[in-house]
Write a structure and sequence with these properties.
The structure is a homodimer.
Chain A (H helix, E strand, L loop, with lengths): L1 E5 L10 H9 L2 E5 H8 L6 E5 L4 H13 L4 E5 L9 H7 L7 E4 L4 H9 E2 L5 E5 L7 H13 L3 E5 L9 H10 L7 E6 L7 E6 H4 L8 E5 L5 E3 L2 E3 L7
Parallel strand pairs in A: 1-4, 1-5, 2-3, 2-4, 6-13, 7-8
Antiparallel strand pairs in A: 8-11, 9-10, 9-11, 12-13
Chain lengths: ~240, ~240
């Protein structure tokens, strides 16, 4: 049995009962180093299989092979198991295998970060990753452009890394072609973890911000506003 | 104290610990009739304030006024509290009030439905509601068009209602201008509840489908495929 578990932002509080039960039931928990450390504080007596970043494929193959040996394995993802998570990779690698796989969803960073900022995602939104490890940058740019043209709220995952220091600036510049420099934006770093930080800022300010990969970014639509220090996209009820 | 609680798909299993604790702590739980009934089976001894659909504003005002009288109130939303939830409306209505408001995120239908189908949301996606109660249909059409042009996976909330029987067909027709009729689509009805139903179908078939408002719809991107009966959007790891 292989569970692919989205465990939420990181703390015990953000985990669903279903995720918790899968982890409790598992013989071994497989995951990225940082996430395994978070889970060890909640489930200290479990066996862990830990691999660093960019070893996702090896981790998934290990999880599949171990589960095939009649072990119960949980492959863990922060946030949701589907949204930029391991679910698709496991399903690809396990294609045709006689193995029971259960995908357990979790609260993705778009939603947990939004709750920290206020309610930025109360209307139609697009989720875009700025990581070009697996996606051509041209396609990412095209998606940012169409999301801005459609006046979607845009939620950005993986806004930056050492190698991609200027990607958020380039993304902001694309949006600036279609939206006002005063567009309300926000970001949250380390959502639900120690050292959580948030900031609400303008699109013009976002262009100059230096953020890391543990940050989730929100670019409001034309209606997004600030109320009592919170980022709010009205749904339209009060119109 | 006012909690705005996203309680997930409906069952106890899909609720986070944080959501559960807020509900346990509350003097009264306010929500839409159907969701209150779901919660009564988990928290039978709570006081409930129940209003039907389209009474969202009245419900929020009641929750704010009651919380101001030193009561702990949870205003509940299925899925997430932000994504087409009550969080933005409450923040608008409570603007300037001296009231502690905590927004508790939950697993939104995009993620819980995706886990039922497989892994359709493993790459950039757009979330669009087809409800034109609060949004002009022209804007909804524009967003569908740009999402299709950007080759986003599209997740559709509120695909239909009695008054809007042909909206999903119209949405499908827009996507068909940019994507193949064989594009892999899927839908899930009553996610995580009794009577859960799912189906994977082509965009051409989706055009003719008759769905209700308890259904979440996924239109794949150009890379989305079917593997062992599951809808999968590859992230690109195996390329």
């Amino acid at each position: 049995m292989l569970f692919i578990v989205g465990f939420g932002a990181g703390g015990e509080n953000g985990m669903t009962l279903e995720a918790r039960q899968a982890l409790e039931k598992s013989d071994v928990i497989a995951g990225y180093t940082v996430y395994a450390e978070l889970l060890k504080s909640i489930f200290p007596h479990k066996e862990y299989f830990v691999t660093p970043m960019r070893k996702e494929k090896e981790r998934c193959i290990w999880a599949i092979e171990t589960a095939k040996q009649n072990k119960t394995v949980s492959l863990v993802c922060s946030g949701d198991s589907g949204v930029y998570g391991m679910a698709s990779l496991v399903l690809e690698l396990a294609k045709g295998e006689d193995l029971e796989i259960k995908i357990i969803p979790g609260v993705t960073a778009a939603c947990s970060g939004a709750a920290v900022l206020g309610a930025p995602l109360s209307h139609d939104f697009a989720v875009i990753s700025l990581s070009d490890l697996l996606t051509p940058w041209e396609l990412i740019e095209k998606r940012i452009q169409y999301a801005a043209m459609g006046d979607f709220v845009i939620c950005i995952y993986n806004p930056s890394s050492k190698k991609r220091a200027d990607y958020l600036r380039r993304a902001s510049e694309i949006v600036l072609q279609y939206q006002s420099p005063d567009t309300v934006c926000g970001y949250v770093r380390n959502i639900g973890r120690d050292g959580e930080e948030k900031r609400i800022l303008s699109l013009k300010q976002l262009q100059e911000a230096h953020l890391d990969m543990f940050t989730t970014v929100y670019i409001g639509n034309s209606q997004t506003t600030v109320m009592d220090g919170r980022m709010v996209t009205p749904r339209g009820y009060l119109l």
